[in-house]
Amino acid sequence: MAGTRRLRSTHWFGPHDKDGFIHRSWMKNQGFPPDQFDGRPVIGICNTFSELTPCNAHFRGLAERVKRGVLEAGGFPLEFPVMSLGETNLRPTAMLFRNLASMDVEESIRGNPIDGVVLLCGCDKTTPALLMGAASCDLPTIVVSGGPMLNGRFRGQPIGSGTNVWSMSEEVRAGTMSLADFMDAESCMSRSAGHCMTMGTASTMACMVESLGVGLPNNAAIPAVDSRRLVLAQMAGRRIVDLVRDDVRLSAILTRDAFENAIRVNAAIGGSSNFVLHLLAIAGRIGVPLDLDLFDRLGHDMPLLVDLMPSGRFLMEDFYDAGGLPAVLRALGDLLHRDALTVNGRTLGENVAEAPCWNREVIRTRDAPVQPKAGLAVLRGSLAPQGAVIKPSAASPHLLRHRGRAVVFETIEDLKARIDDPALDVDEHCVLVLKGAGPRGYPGMPEVGNMPLPRKLLARGITDMVRISDGRMSGTAYGAVVLHTAPEAVLGGPLAFVRDGDSILLDVEARRLELEVPEDEMARRRAAWVSPPPVAASGYQRMYVDHVLQADRGADLDFLVGCRGAAVPRESH
Ligand code: FES
User: Fold this and answer.
1) Is 197 a pocket residue for ligand 1 (Cβ < 6 Å)?
2) Helix axes 126-137, 98-111, angle to 10 degrees
3) Is the pLDDT assigned to residue 4 strictly greater than 80?
4) What mean pLDDT is reported for the chain?
5) 292-299 vs 256-269: helix axis angle to the nearest 10?
6) Burial of 177 by CB count in 10 Å (0-12 exposed, 13-18 middle, 19+ buried)?
7) How much is the CA Rg of the chain, to the nearest whole Å?
């Protein structure tokens, strides 16, 4: 019992009747003593462990530490698996399954005798999937992130997950790095358990967790193999029991102020563009309406305080050594809602009031930022009526205002077949356009927006071009890359009508993305357009393409938006 309040788990384990017998007896086959069913808080540990998700493969040890903490605090820990999404292995893209995993999480929490839940998250999509599912139930919840890998090291130099895959593979294509050296770098990049150690999407999500207040301080940056990660997991186990006793639900943490804090922090850390999609989806589940333009309004004037790849030089291990996210939160000061409640019972401001910074190269002050303005920019215009995003801090400055001739690829296969063709009519002033990479079109919105540059331009030393698509980009990638263009091409958005030779204007300062084609010509193209056939006739993919929302709504499924609570009135027998 929590005070005089009956916990929801007592509806399973409390009754002295046939149903109570069924719920307790089968659980006792695991060797639980009878007093575990006496009404104490039952804590679900939602585990995304999988050997197919290498970033989360160390989670068994982490779960054991959470259990230790739950037991110390007088709770009853029960670990359960959910679908795990590994970014590097899952085809056609892990994003296709984020919403499916969120359904697994939501129904696993709601359908079981759980009073509070600890979410073990790591690889990119596991964090939003678990938070989305938990938000739709709204029980007391703490996130424990798995932590980043140790810094990559290759021949005396640091190399970052993803970021240096993109750069080295371009060097191989340009002929400035041998294939043998490239292969050598594989094991040097991924040296330990943990997720990508650049400020890619996984690190961005771990920072999001901490800035939202749903993780304990320092959740974002402690390396996966650092013993302090185990301590954090144990403390989360202790703390979730208190949250259940005090009935502090996720909705008390995930307030509008918390979401606004997360948006500002994401700009200050140079976080991934994927953050936009995931935060919109999480907010939609808990019932806090956000719109795409808020990311620009709150973020665009934010200084970049963290010098991490892909925007900068350092890696997550350096970030933790320098003070981690608490040092950033402290430096942001009154730019944040400091009275937002966090899961340790203190406010965000209280948590970071004394947070030290040990290295001002890695974590800057507002007076001496890496860049004065770092937020994602939301673009609109005739090519993106429902918006598109670009990460200016990761783009070459000279391309942030650019007019160029379109070179169009209808699909990713078309791009792969022709991009290195010496006869391709392209120069560095052109704008590469890729269609068919949106939520419905691929399906699942893959990370292909950072298209490879034509080999003949790489050979001339060209390292960046304006690229536009309805897809996403890895958080570890970089370049003048316009993403999430909505409506997507397969829905008949303006992107569908772009042809080779059209003039396109990108003006980040003015937030414009224009297809400079006369309206009468656009009308002719629209009239002649035939929508492509559906990519999936049955199965989960069919449900996904029938119900997925566009990028400006977070690409959730339309029927999953909202909080459905945790009540289950009916018995199973
Ligand atoms: Fe898992 Fe990057 S591949 S976090």
Assistant:
1) no
2) 40
3) no
4) 96
5) 60
6) middle
7) 24
Note the pLDDT tens digit of each residue in 344-384: 999 999 999 999 999 999 999 999 999 998 889 999 999 99
Contact 119, 141 (CB under 8 A): yes
Q: Give yes or no for residue 200 CB within 6 A of ligand 1.
A: yes
Ligand 1: nearest atom to the Cα of 54: 1
Nearest CA among 484, 199, 223 for reference residue 328: 199
Nearest alpha-carbon partner for 148 in 195, 216, 83, 193: 195
- Burial class from Cβ neighbours inside 10 Å (0-12, 13-18, 19+) for residue 519 reads exposed
Question: How would you classify residue 357: left for phi > 0, otherwise alpha for psi between -120 and 50, otherwise beta?
Answer: beta
In this structure, the residue with its CA closest to atom 2 of ligand 1 is 196
Question: How does pLDDT run across 427-472, given as a tens digit for each residue?
Answer: 999 999 999 999 999 999 999 999 999 999 999 999 999 999 999 9
Distance between CA atoms of residues 547 and 554, nearest Å = 12
CA of 261 to the centre of ligand 1 (A): 24
In the Cβ-directed half-sphere of 242, how many Cα atoms lie within 13 Å?
Answer: 13
Cβ contacts of residue 242 below 8 Å, gap of 6+? 73, 345
Please give the model's pTM, rounded to 2 decimal places.
0.97
Residues whose CB is less than 8 angstroms from the CB of residue 119 and which lie 6 or more positions away in sequence, other chains included: 46, 105, 130, 131, 134, 141, 142, 143, 144
Q: Is 90 exceeded by the pLDDT of residue 545?
A: yes
Ligand 1 atom 1: the closest Cα is on which residue?
Answer: 123
- Cα(452) to centroid of ligand 1, in Å? 20
Q: Is the beta carbon of 202 within 6 A of some atom in ligand 1?
A: yes
- What is the 161 CA–ligand 1 centroid distance (Å)? 8
